[in-house]
């Protein structure tokens, strides 16, 4: 389970899961232009979660 984190309007995203000893930070250089996260955010977090395994 990924705990609540932060998706910033200037292209940052961070989440942590202390149970998995996991911290993920995504920094990009594109401001967000909608309230929905861009595809790169979704791809990054999907891959990060898959890397944790079971």
Protein topology:
Elements: E1 6-7, E2 12-17, E3 22-27, H1 39-52
Antiparallel strand pairs: 1-2, 2-3
Question: How would you characterize the overall build of this protein?
Answer:
It contains one helix and three strands. It has one domain. The chain has one helix at 39-52; strands at 6-7, 12-17, 22-27. The protein has a three-stranded antiparallel sheet, covered by helices on one side. It is α+β, with helices and mostly antiparallel strands. The radius of gyration is 11 Å and the shape is elongated. The longest helix has 14 residues, at 39-52. Strand 1 and strand 2 (12-17) form a beta hairpin.
Sheet with the most strands, sense and barrel status: 3 strands, antiparallel
- Overall 3D shape: elongated
Judged by helices, strands and strand pairing, the structural class is alpha+beta
Write out the strand line-up for the largest beta sheet, numbering strands in chain order.
1-2-3
Quickly list its features.
1 helix, alpha+beta, single chain, elongated, 54 residues, three-stranded antiparallel β-sheet
Explain briefly what this protein structure is.
The protein is of the alpha+beta class.
